[in-house]
Write a structure and sequence with these properties.
The chain contains eleven helices and eight strands. It has about 375 residues and is α/β, with parallel strands linked by helices. The chain has a single domain, classed as Aminopeptidase, CATH 3.40.630. It is globular, with a radius of gyration of 19 Å.
């Protein structure tokens, strides 16, 4: 999560620019202007609703200690683009996905770009469950960490909430739901889903110097532009990979105790309220730990101006966005204290359960 200006999406001028971008996106997203009938189906898509027994089954699949050891801890290191730590984390992400039965299609979008610290190598990781499916429910995060000099006492910036934990949560989602994802992928005929799950791990979200339009969002800017140029389904001249995105769910600044999430966009407010409903249902069944209130994380508020993050290049191309970022930001944001010691296991475990139910209901596994 980048510079200070992102707390309120910058100045009034920047806010106006973002408002105009969102307005243009609403026009772009009008079903009447879509190029293909299948691309319009995102607007009428409705999720299933799990019963109490099914909720218990999905909630029981999570294991925060397993996630902590296998998914998260290998990421709790410096991950500045082009560094050995970045390379190690790339290998960790792809290696974990390759172990799963669902057989993810994994692509690496690598490129070089100038930065205030010279030309750097960046690599986005895109994992698609079923490339044959026309539509994609995208969950995304950024795996890079912001550059800070090593402190006098030898400490480095880890960026646990920003955004090692969100990336570990996506890996845990793929692991915990593996059998259901595999079964859905292997189904044939009319039961085969036309919407699949796609996980995107962005490189270069953070600014190297000061947050600007050119010193930030390196990976998401590159991939969004690329997706507008790649036909989808393959060979179709009228639709692209951008049209394939049902919804872009971005996780950022997650892992501290008592996060607050609000709705940022009207066209995904229905889905935000689904998250509120899932939190309420899991709470009532006693499946959430250290969770005293019915709605502790997802609040029925709407933020006027979007926070700057990796969703912006996709928003500008008309993609519906569900931005799950803790606002206000965690108190450890962009400090050396954004580390493992200040993470809250019950919160992460609870959010995993909520998101696993969300994906199960959206993709209608049960």
């Amino acid at each position: 999560m980048g510079g200070v200006a992102r707390r309120a999406a910058g100045s009034a001028l920047l806010g106006l620019a973002l408002y105009l971008a969102v307005s243009l996106c609403r026009s772009f997203n009008d079903p009447g202007t879509s190029r293909a009938a299948w691309a319009d189906q995102k607007w009428s898509h409705r999720a299933s609703s799990l019963n109490s027994k099914q909720l218990r089954r999905i909630a029981s699949l999570t294991n925060v200690e397993r996630m902590w050891h296998h998914e998260l801890q290998p990421m709790l290191r410096e991950r500045v683009p082009g560094s050995p730590g970045s390379k190690a984390v790339q290998e960790h992400i792809t290696g974990r996905l390759k172990l799963l039965d669902a057989g993810w299609n994994i692509e690496t979008d690598s490129f070089r770009e100038r930065t205030p610290q010279g030309t750097k190598q960046f690599s986005n990781i895109i994992a698609t469950l079923d490339p044959k499916a026309k539509r994609r429910l995208v969950f995304a995060c950024h795996y890079d960490s912001k550059y800070f000099p090593t402190s006098d006492d030898g400490r480095v910036f880890i960026g646990a909430t920003d955004s090692a934990v969100p990336c570990a949560m996506l890996l845990d989602m793929a692991y915990s739901l593996d059998s259901y994802l595999n079964k859905t992928k292997e189904s044939e005929g009319p039961t085969r889903a036309d919407v699949t799950l796609q996980l995107i791990f962005f490189d270069g979200e953070e600014a190297f110097h000061e947050w600007t339009q050119t010193d930030s969002l390196y990976g998401s800017r590159h991939l969004a532009k690329k997706m507008t140029r790649v036909g989808h389904p393959a060979g179709d001249p009228d639709t692209t990979q951008i049209h394939a995105i049902d919804m872009f769910v971005l996780l950022d600044l997650i892992g501290a105790v008592n996060p607050v999430f609000v709705s940022h966009f009207e066209n995904t407010e229905y889905w935000f309220k689904r998250l509120m409903s899932i939190e309420r249902r899991l709470h009532s069944l006693g499946h959430l730990e250290d969770h005293p209130y019915e709605l502790q994380y997802f609040h029925n508020h709407h933020k006027s101006w979007p926070v700057q993050d990796d969703h912006l290049p996709f928003l500008q191309h008309g993609v519906p966005v569900l931005h799950l970022i803790s606002t206000p930001f965690p108190h450890v944001w962009h400090t050396l204290d954004d580390n493992e010691e200040n993470l809250h296991r019950p919160t992460i475990d609870n959010l995993n359960k909520i998101l696993h139910v969300f994906v199960t209901e959206y993709l209608k596994f049960l």
